[in-house]
Design a protein that fits this description.
outer membrane lipoprotein receptor (LolB), chain A, mainly beta
């Protein structure tokens, strides 16, 4: 649980473009005539900030931690967390590989197994074109939550040991707005209470994460797409003493 909680903060800046204004309480549910391929295409048209070639995003959590996220298309990313201006943790994503950098020894530790698969799913949820790679089965229905209608995607990960993921897509905007899953039988939800427009792209402004009885908030501090990044920026380095 402690490991996943840390990675939730680190991956939050790399995931969802969504908006949500209430609790997840269904009022009505019915089948849908929408096919997955059509919905996938429409979601792709509702561009997220992953459309930028590269960016650096800075966010602040309710625990007074700063998250700095770097992204380079198509599949390079890095997230750093800072507490009291001190670097506390680093995750590096290089294509299909993920490393946790030990900030004390500077030694990269590759994340493997079930934890890698969970993180890989989470960081790809804002890329509908990747759903075929991370899910073995997707069922679509329509659900009304308060005054909004959503396409509810019930997604079964390819790794059987990972819990089902529920994805809610706004029926009008085709934007991903809510995700829900379970980790060790504890419910996990993520949603955004507000967002900002940046050159026609919606960027999360305030994210709320609820995990069991605990909740956390993440707020956008800065977003910069006018930077230069290369794949070498996302390659773990050997410690200076080796």
């Amino acid at each position: 649980m402690k490991f996943l909680r840390k990675t939730i903060f680190l991956v939050a800046g790399l995931t969802l473009t969504m908006s949500f204004t209430g609790c997840i309480t269904s009022e009505k549910e019915e089948g849908s005539s929408m096919t997955f391929s059509t919905l996938q295409w429409k979601m792709k048209q509702a561009k997220s900030y992953s459309e930028f070639d590269c960016y650096v995003m800075t966010q602040k959590t309710s625990e007074n931690t700063l998250i700095k996220s770097y992204y380079l298309r198509p599949d390079y990313a890095k997230s750093e967390t800072y507490k009291d201006s001190k670097l506390k943790s680093v995750l590096i994503f290089n294509k299909d590989r993920i490393w946790n950098i030990n900030v004390k020894t500077q030694r990269p530790e590759e994340i493997l197994g079930i934890n890698r698969e969970k993180i890989h799913i989470f960081e790809n949820l804002n890329k509908p074109e990747s759903y075929d790679k991370i899910f073995s089965k997707i069922n679509i229905s329509e659900k009304k939550i308060k005054d909004k209608w959503y396409y509810e995607l019930t997604c079964q990960p390819k790794v059987a040991e990972i819990s089902t993921v529920w994805i809610y897509v706004n029926r009008e905007t085709f934007r991903l707005e809510i995700i829900k899953t379970f980790n060790n039988n504890i419910e996990f939800k993520q949603f955004i209470t507000s967002y900002k427009d940046f050159e026609g792209i919606k960027i999360p402004d305030k994210i709320k994460i609820v995990q069991g009885l605990e909740s956390y908030e993440i707020e956008l501090v800065d977003f910069n797409k006018d930077i230069k990044l290369t794949p070498s920026d996302f390659t773990p380095k050997k410690p200076w003493y080796e």
